[in-house]
TrEMBL record:
Residues 132-169 form the RNA polymerase sigma factor 70 region 4 type domain. It comes from Rhodohalobacter barkolensis. This is RNA polymerase subunit sigma-24. Pfam families: Sigma70_r2 (PF04542), Sigma70_r4_2 (PF08281). GO terms for biological process: DNA-templated transcription initiation. Residues 22-90 form the RNA polymerase sigma-70 region domain. It comes from the Bacteria. One of its GO terms (molecular function) is sigma factor activity. Keywords: DNA-binding, Sigma factor, Transcription, Transcription regulation. Belongs to the sigma-70 factor family. ECF subfamily.
Amino acid sequence: MKDRELVHLFRKKDDQLAFQELMNRHQAKIYSYIYSMIQNRETANDIFQETFTKVITKMDDTYNEQGKWIAWVMRIAHNATIDHIRKQKRFVDVSSSYDEESKTDFYERLPDEGTPGQHDQLELDESTSRLLKHIGNLPEEQRTVVMLRHYYEMPFKEIAELTDVSINTALGRMRYALINLRKMFDEEHEKESNKV
């Protein structure tokens, strides 16, 4: 069954199994997004629970079945996450809890070109760690677009809807994010060159 059919069953017939199926399909994606922004498992769990409480209570009032259900849920998760970050009045360093347990990143989504050697894997891990550190230093709006576009492979139209901006604004944030990331890598490379 498609998402919209499951949503219809839940809304019209209070079919709990339909809602459970929706959760099973999408909970990993939603939780991963929250965690990637927060970098704290306990807080991410709290925000995830808050998100689904809002989903259940607001589905009859605010969800329009013409739109994608997952995009609507992601918007709720995004807003709850941003509210938390603003309350904390700090930006999250996404590399702070980069450990063996949380190595779900851009590089692991790339096609496997064969088993890399141990040296190659160490270089890949180091590059990943640097990339995540630099993404964590981006302004909140740019970091969000980078994570949604490259980590979750969301189209810019959905990113714009989720973050409540125009497509041009979402594209602009991505462009500035890439410029800033390039600057960060250049500065890092320059510092390393000066050490030698």
